[in-house]
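Fill in residues.
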């Protein structure tokens, strides 16, 4: 397997990676609200802001707004102004990302016992 980055990782390597926007996308899809909104839009179809707000308990309007803007900026969600409201929909790009995110979630569920054990061993070493 070829390395993702050359070793050692230099400041120039980090800078060139940051210039691609990859870190921003990874940060966005790592947020729990982004994933939930993508799933809601995939499963429930295009939705207005208020419907999205009601669909995810505990999600503030401010965070929903910020999350939708990030998803739209990165092409994962589209925004369409209708007569009296705005409608959001998952894009083909967003739909193509979801299986990867879901796979990571499934991996985490499958390996939860091993992760829990590793955390316990780590914490016991700190005491």
């Amino acid at each position: 397997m070829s390395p993702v980055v050359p070793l050692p990782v230099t400041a120039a390597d980090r800078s060139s990676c940051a210039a691609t926007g990859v870190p921003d996308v990874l940060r966005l899809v790592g947020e729990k609200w982004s994933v939930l909104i993508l799933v809601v839009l995939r499963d429930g179809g295009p939705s207005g802001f208020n419907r999205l707000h009601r669909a995810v308990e505990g999600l503030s309007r401010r965070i929903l707004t910020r999350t939708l803007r990030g998803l739209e900026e990165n092409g994962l969600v589209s925004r369409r102004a209708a007569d009296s409201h705005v409608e959001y929909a998952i894009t083909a790009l967003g739909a193509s990302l979801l299986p990867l995110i879901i796979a990571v979630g499934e991996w985490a569920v499958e390996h939860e016992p091993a992760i829990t054990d590793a955390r316990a061993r780590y914490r016991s070493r700190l005491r």
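The longest strand covers residues 77-81.
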